[in-house]
Automatic annotation (TrEMBL):
InterPro entries per UniProt: YbaK/aa-tRNA-synt-asso_dom_sf, YbaK/aa-tRNA-synth-assoc-dom
Pfam family, one: tRNA_edit
Cited CDD domains: ProX_deacylase (cd04333)
Taxonomic source organism: freshwater metagenome
YbaK/aminoacyl-tRNA synthetase-associated domain sequence ranges: 55-174
Membrane-spanning segments: none
GO molecular function, one term: aminoacyl-tRNA deacylase activity
Protein name: Unannotated protein
Amino acid sequence: MLPEGFRSEASLERTLPVNSLFMTEAISKHPAVERVRAALALHGLSPEITILSDSARSAKEAAAGLGIEVGQVCSSLIFTLGDSTEPLLILTSGRHRVDTDLVAKNLGVSHLGRADADIVRSATGFAIGGVSPVAHPAPLRTIIDLALNDYDVVWAAAGHPHAVYPTTYDELLRSTAAQAMVVGD
């Protein structure tokens, strides 16, 4: 059964064509995607991971590939706290940018820095563009955007730039132990 809000026709047109089934299988069995699948299973979740023909490195790309509103895309962004290299994962709706001043103020730190690719990979085990909300090498301090609760179904990266999975705000909250917060307008 398809999740509510999932438009199969739009999605099927944008998934890999039949002659690229080997690509679909290769991505589906990619070690990072398997890690995400296993982490979700630990939380009692088993969503069908969708493989897109085009990259889903940005919320706009993912929304276009799935035929959904950009706000339904859960972007997993890594920041650093203050002047440290301590990572902070922010799960945000694709409908707006993270207001780093607002989040820093709410967390009681001087500022948030944007983590570089090395910090992102070290903290999450994923490359930028495929960062999943789950399956990190160690637990991460996580903030979840309250705006994601506006949607019945949201889509998150599944460890690869072409892999995404459907979930809900409540499932994200439960599987990440995130702190809920307004992160942008």
